[in-house]
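User: Transcriptional regulator. Structure?
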Amino acid sequence: MLNNIYSVSKLSEITGVTIRTLHYYDKVGLLKPHRRADNHYREYTQEHLALLKQIIIYRELDFSLAQIKDLIYAKDLDFIQTLSNQKALLLKRQEETQVIINSIEVTMNVLAGEKNLELLFSDMPEGFNEKVMKLKGDDTFDSMLSSLGRLSKNEIELSKKQTDDWAFDYKSVLSVSVNSEQVQKKIKEHYNLMNSLFRKIHGDDFKGIGYNGYLILADKTISEPITKAFYENYQVGMAAHLYEAMIIFADKELSDMLKSISN
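Assistant: Predicted structure:
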């Protein structure tokens, strides 16, 4: 009803604004109630309730009390300009907040990546994980941890099992020429495993490992200590054999991708 009268406690109950805050709004002239003639108690009308709801909205938009007072009571204020200025401030704050959120997400992914890396390297010699974790702080290593952190424990365990199964089979062909059909068949399986892992990490944005990408992976098997140790843990000599076989596979199976891109 339009003629409702509210006590300060009732208005506080309806709106969730504390009695102390309502007293302060009265003191600064933001929301001045009527005073009863007999006891001077504060009384609020339906109009006061409507104004308070506006104040609540403006406070949620991070307006200062002085700005709110101008918006509510000043007759000659440029409301559009005031709101436009406040919008610009909010957008800036939104950008700053997003930067903080992104930083938190990266940290969370890195921490999750550490646990996933421990799962992947669970069969490595004692002390290996400690040596690996000393690389934290390196941009490339932290980026790798962040990528691994996007995978669930089940996805990591499945990936490890698939890699283990492939590696134990590959051990049986280490004495075979890297040019052989037998070896190249195993390299194709390796190529598919890598594609599957990267697709899990990067989602639909990942379009597959191309010629240059697979050459980079090949180089890492012998030039990157962690990757080399990972393969050598299955069998000494595997990293070098795998490197040569991957180079041949890239030239035979993936070079057409490079040509199609060039054309």
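The first strand starts at residue 5 and ends at 6. The mean pLDDT is 87.
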